[in-house]
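F.,

This is the one I mentioned.
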């Protein structure tokens, strides 16, 4: 299970160590060469990704439902290629954009990545197969994030507690928390940041000190965040969780609509289309579905009916972009619409 390689890459010097990686520098580095595959090539890569996952008893949404029409090939350098997949509109998430990637070194599959994004924030999942975890892992991860920034405009990266070792003994054994911390990620919970700094002080005093498994489990109990461009404290993504938006919608559904999903969806669409002065007549099924999904949080935005024409037009473009062929457009448009972005952030905090 390997792809053909015209010219293999040979390491003629020591491997790039984690201490040699600056995530900020990588995120600001020159663009990565990208090539769009044909549909036939895309189908071949997706089949390969599914097979590679299946033999390891794994499954990824982006591989199972990947869109063969939207597979990109990126050359990260040092013999490493990454194939990035979209999913078609009918298999997309209602609010976040979803992208998956398969990584190859000299044609050999070495791991996978998935990103779930809203505005400029991405929840990133990164898994390198056991065999390859001593092979420039930090460099590869940093290059993947650089690629995601280039394709999607994301600049804030979130690590789920599981990735850091929460209820994941493999993560504890590998010291996953320190992998991310040494790349510049920080715990968002104040008590965990305080504990992190206490552990770092111990290491500074005694370089042979190692954090115990029990302490690693404590450190892994919360999200970690990396922001390329830190914003003022009141607009940070520290406490954002997408599920909070869902909970806010559910509370409103129980409070105002007797728990009826049909009634809240109908009312939300009417509210949003009236406030934004748009008509869904002539829209395709995927666009109507996007309107119904996005109307649920948008209907809760104070002052929606007071938006100016530019804000209304951009909001309509955001809704329709959720169902377009390239879901990256959806993210980039939200990044340009401060009112939508800030409303979603507030609902998720």
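My design for it:
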């Amino acid at each position: 299970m390997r792809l053909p390689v015209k010219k293999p890459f040979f390491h003629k010097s020591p491997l790039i160590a984690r201490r040699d990686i600056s995530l900020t520098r990588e995120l600001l580095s020159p663009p990565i060469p990208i090539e769009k595959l044909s549909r036939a090539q895309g189908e071949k890569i997706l089949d390969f990704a599914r097979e590679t996952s299946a033999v390891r008893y794994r499954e990824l949404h982006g591989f199972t439902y990947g869109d063969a029409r939207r597979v990109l090939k990126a050359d990260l350098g040092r013999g490493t290629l990454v194939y990035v997949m979209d999913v078609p509109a009918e298999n997309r998430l209602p609010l976040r954009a979803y992208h998956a990637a398969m990584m190859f070194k000299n044609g050999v599959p070495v791991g996978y990545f998935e990103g779930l994004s809203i505005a400029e924030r991405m929840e990133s999942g990164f898994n390198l197969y056991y065999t390859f975890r001593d092979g420039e892992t930090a460099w590869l991860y940093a290059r993947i994030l650089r690629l995601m920034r280039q394709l999607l405009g994301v600049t804030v990266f979130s690590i789920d507690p599981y990735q850091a070792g929460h209820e994941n003994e493999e993560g504890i054994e590998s010291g996953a928390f320190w992998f991310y911390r040494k790349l510049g990620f920080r715990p968002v919970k104040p008590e965990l940041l305080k504990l992190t700094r206490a552990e770092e002080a111990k290491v500074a005093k005694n370089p042979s000190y190692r954090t115990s498994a029990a302490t690693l489990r404590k450190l892994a109990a919360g999200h970690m965040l990396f922001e390329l461009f830190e914003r003022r404290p009141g607009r940070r993504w520290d406490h954002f969780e997408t599920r909070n938006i869902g909970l806010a919608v559910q509370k409103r559904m129980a409070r105002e609509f007797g728990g009826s999903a049909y009634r809240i969806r109908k009312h939300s669409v009417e509210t949003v289309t009236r406030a934004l002065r748009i008509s869904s007549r002539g829209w395709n099924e995927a666009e109507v579905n996007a309107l119904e999904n996005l109307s649920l949080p948008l209907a809760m935005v104070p002052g929606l009916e007071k938006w100016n024409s530019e804000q209304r037009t951009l909001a309509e473009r955001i809704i329709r972009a959720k169902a377009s062929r390239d879901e990256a457009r959806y993210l980039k448009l939200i990044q340009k619409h401060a009112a939508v972005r800030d409303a979603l952030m507030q609902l998720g905090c």
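Residues 89 and 323 are 5 Å apart (CA to CA).

Talk soon.
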